[in-house]
Amino acid sequence: MKKGMQLLRAWAARGVHWVGLAGAIGISGAAQAGDYDGSPQVAEFVSEMTRDYGFAGEQLIALFRDVERKQSILDAISRPAERVKSWKEYRPIFVTDARIKRGVEFWNQHAEVLARAEKEYGVPAQYIVSIIGVETFFGRNTGGFRVMDALSTLGFDYPPRADFFRKELKQFLLLAREQQVDPLSLTGSYAGAMGLPQFMPSSFRAYAVDFDGDGHINIWNDPDDAIGSVASYFKQHGWQTGEPVVSRAELGKPNAEEALTQGLDPQMNLGQLRTQGWRTQDVLRDDLMVTAIRFEGDQGTEYWVGLPNFYVITRYNRSAMYAMAVHQLAGEIARARGVH
After folding, report:
1. Which domains are delineated in the chain?
2. Is the Cβ–Cβ distance between 273 and 292 less than 8 Å?
3. Contact 271/286 with Cβ under 8 angstroms?
4. Is the dihedral of CA 113, 115, 118, 123 positive or negative?
5. What is the pLDDT of residues 68-116, one digit of tens each?
6. Catalytic residue numbers?
7. pTM (2 decimals)?
């Protein structure tokens, strides 16, 4: 990827678009017909990109000749959902000694950048580190699919969510043009999530930042940009500096479970939740919008009140268990590093 970036950046310095250099990056108009050659869906998509965003149609058609339909991607996304894990099963996947140890190492390696991100965005370093740890084990598991293949396969051959993935494909091509990167060089998950923080293309364009100031955003192998981008994402989704994330709770009325939040969006404030019989271990304001949560843990049923910052974490991944894993891993990494 670095070679492709260097080449395209050199062209960019001369004011040249990647879409006008398809042949130079291996997208030859005379290439052998690919999986999407002659596809009416692709033709319509190319027409939209040329009309709405000024892309060169012939070069996009040439690009799609090199795109591959991946059955393994369709198999992965169509696989029946696993049985929903309980918290006592979910937590040990992410809050592990190995992930804590690697998190401390990552923090030590990038301490200055993390401190700068915390100062600029108000997001504690341990939460930035934890997101990268949960998402990709600090870069160990970033995905090996070409993003063009993933988004094209799902956008043109997976009807249940085709609209979503075609929108992400549009965002991806815009991203590649803006960053002057060969779109065939970028890799990610089978769903098109990219880099150390696993951003989808729309999130990249909305929240990713050039945190090292080199003029380009590279979340694949530039930890500085990945760190700044996670902090930017949290900040723009409403992270409240210095505020807690969750509070352990006890239930004091027989029907208190009726106040459990359906879904993730807060439906009542803490004062209202208290009238339902919920008591938090921490002293908190009644006007906070909260999420009432029940987990099945190692020691039995746990009740938690998710606060606004907890909700911010669920905006990264729409799962209460995910957000709690990020929170608890962040705490363990901070403690292991001696941060209180």
Report:
1. 8-66+145-194 (1.10.8.350)
2. yes
3. yes
4. positive
5. 999 999 999 999 877 789 999 999 999 999 999 999 999 999 999 999 9
6. 135
7. 0.90
